[in-house]
Amino acid sequence: MIEIKSFVFSPFSENTYVLYDGSKEAIIIDPGCYEPYEYDELNNFIKNNQLTPVGIYNTHAHIDHVLGVEKLKNIYKVPFALHKLDEPLLRAVKTYAPNYGFPVFSEPAVERWLKEGETVEFGNSSLGIRFVPGHAPGHVAFVNDAQKFVIGGDVLFRQSIGRTDLPGGNMGTLLNSIRTQLFTLPDDYTVYAGHMQPTTIGYEKKHNPFLN
């Protein structure tokens, strides 16, 4: 069974996730930690639960989701995975990070390019990859059907959706991604988003003002 631990990091209030199972292998999704105390919080959780990280996987490459990637790669000696279409977003972060108050940013190398229909595997567990562009060109979501959850990044929020006014964003594309890739899931699937609290597919079908 997959356990999900969430952390809220940075002034962006970004949700970073650690997923692990009984094997004690773990993956880190969208590490947005930057300050030393944020790394301490994440690393202490991993240490105290005797977890072994085996990879870092990102839904997309906006600054708030990649701040901690390079440092965690070095700490745990693990590969980083991202969709190829988000490579330009990743490469751009170093040019604007100081303007957002993050003067020290090290650009991580990408060891694996994620593709729709493939799986992310760790321990005894796996996640399916769905391609959900619109907020970012190469945005993906990670889905587990056995436990009925989605790690959705900045696509679908509780009664909201991801912004589309950033480079590579497109409102029509985003709404189509939600309708064809997320709203085709059963209503009882939980969506763990990149910001704010979790929601469910069924709740958003009924209450999301952007999709009614």
Walkthrough of the structure:
This protein has a 6-stranded mixed beta sheet, with helices on one face. The longest helix is centred in the first third of the chain and has 13 residues, at 36-48. The protein is globular, with a radius of gyration of 16 Å. It has one domain (3-207): Metallo-beta-lactamase, Chain A, CATH 3.60.15. The protein is built from 6 helices and 14 strands. Helix 1 links the parallel strand 3 and strand 4. By secondary structure, it is α/β, with parallel strands linked by helices. The model has no long low-confidence stretch (mean pLDDT 98). Its cofactor is Zn(2+). This is MBL fold metallo-hydrolase. Keywords: Hydrolase, Metal-binding, Zinc. One of its GO terms (molecular function) is metal ion binding.
List the helices and strands and how they pair.
Elements: E1 3-9, E2 14-20, E3 25-29, H1 36-48, E4 52-57, H2 63-66, H3 69-76, E5 80-83, H4 87-96, E6 112-114, E7 119-122, E8 125-131, E9 140-144, E10 149-153, E11 156-157, E12 160-161, H5 171-182, E13 190-193, E14 199-200, H6 201-207
Parallel strand pairs: 3-4, 4-5, 5-6, 10-13
Antiparallel strand pairs: 1-2, 2-3, 7-8, 8-9, 9-10, 11-12, 13-14
Pfam families: Lactamase_B
Domain Metallo-beta-lactamase: 13-195
Keywords: Hydrolase, Metal-binding, Zinc
